[in-house]
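Hi R.,

Here's the chain you asked about this morning:
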Amino acid sequence: MEFELPQKAQLQQAFADHIRRLCRERVKVLCYIGIVLVPLFGLLDIVLVPSSLFHFFLALRLGTAACLLVALFPLHRLFGERRPSLIGILTAVIVGGCISLMTRYLGGYESSYYAGLNLVLLSVGLIAPFSVKESSVTCGMVYGT
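And here is the predicted structure, written out as tokens:
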């Protein structure tokens, strides 16, 4: 009985398919985490944010959570099967943009909210199986906001 080794192209395709499926599942997890944590961190707003900005920050947080909820829909469709990393990058930029906007109103990089950007990038880096290029684009876009 002879055993045939898979061809290199077959192994590469199988690995790419596995990474794409893993990325899709992990981006879903990131969306669920964001849907819960972005509004939950609003408890900090009660203590740290001037009352004149509280409603604006609440709207930002709820809008961001709604965007993450909407981002879940393509992940359950064919587009999400084919391009999960694109959805993951967009969701990271949406959350990063929200935090950047709040940081801007609270003193810029001197604000304690700035640490939220690091949480976004740490979550993406630890959970999403992005390529080096995708990770670089994500980090650049989040820090660019």
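One quick note: Helices lie at 8-40, 42-48, 51-75, 78-82, 84-105, 115-127, 132-144.

Cheers,
M.
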